[in-house]
Design a protein that fits this description.
Layout: H1 8-18, H2 23-36, H3 52-65, E1 70-74, H4 82-99, E2 102-107, H5 110-116, E3 119-123, E4 130-135, H6 150-165, E5 183-187
Parallel strand pairs: 1-2
Antiparallel strand pairs: 2-5, 3-4, 3-5
Helix pairs in contact: 1-2, 1-3, 2-3, 5-6
Length: about 190
């Protein structure tokens, strides 16, 4: 959640302030992270002045400002339109390649999970258990062409079949729940 009354830069600085980091170091780190997510020119804007995708990038910059070893992302792009979501997926991969930070990305979108990861962890609904691991040996860097690659389509199908085998796609299994209740965690290449 971004704070509407704080500028983009001040939102990124917030966790650093809470840690008591020196002002000059905070300023430098916030600028560096905003450049990383390509929002350096929007430092003095407020969140309500940004698109949904830009707001997500500010949130990513804020999380990365702490230099975490692992970044957990739970459905971060669920509210975005499909084209913005695809652009944000490409941005997450670019940021991952530049920082090397391990990212665990939770999504209900099979194509998104395959595009982002080197391994998809398929989980059951309730109770949440790992039902299958699907390796994703697609080359990096990934881009729009990746989504047209026959290997990508085969992997999307493999993950879909893993969900179906766990009872998640036909809706007829009370234990497995519906597809909307099953979760995919993209890990490995992105984390």
């Amino acid at each position: 959640v971004l704070f509407e009354w704080r500028t983009v830069e001040d939102n990124v600085k917030l966790p650093l302030e809470l840690l008591g980091m020196d002002r000059s170091e905070r300023d430098s780190r916030a600028r560096e992270m905003l450049e990383l997510v390509e929002l350096g020119d929007f430092r003095q804007h407020h969140p309500y002045q940004l698109s949904g995708g830009m707001q997500q990038r500010v949130a990513i910059a804020r999380a990365l400002a702490l230099q975490p070893s692992i970044l957990l992302m739970d459905e971060p792009f669920g509210a975005l339109d499909e084209m913005t979501r695809e652009r944000m997926n490409t941005e997450v991969l670019r940021i991952w390649q530049q920082t090397g930070t391990t990212i665990v990305f939770v999504t209900h979108s099979i194509p998104e999970a395959v595009f982002l990861s080197t391994r998809v962890v398929v989980m059951s609904a309730r109770p949440g258990r790992i039902t299958r691991l699907v390796d994703v040996p697609l080359p990096h860097p990934r881009n729009e062409d990746t989504r047209e690659d026959p290997r990508y389509f085969r992997l999307v199908t493999e993950v879909r079949e893993a969900l179906r085998a766990g009872g998640g796609l036909d809706g007829g299994d009370d234990v497995g729940g519906g597809a909307s209740e099953q979760r995919l965690a993209a890990e490995g290449g992105i984390g």
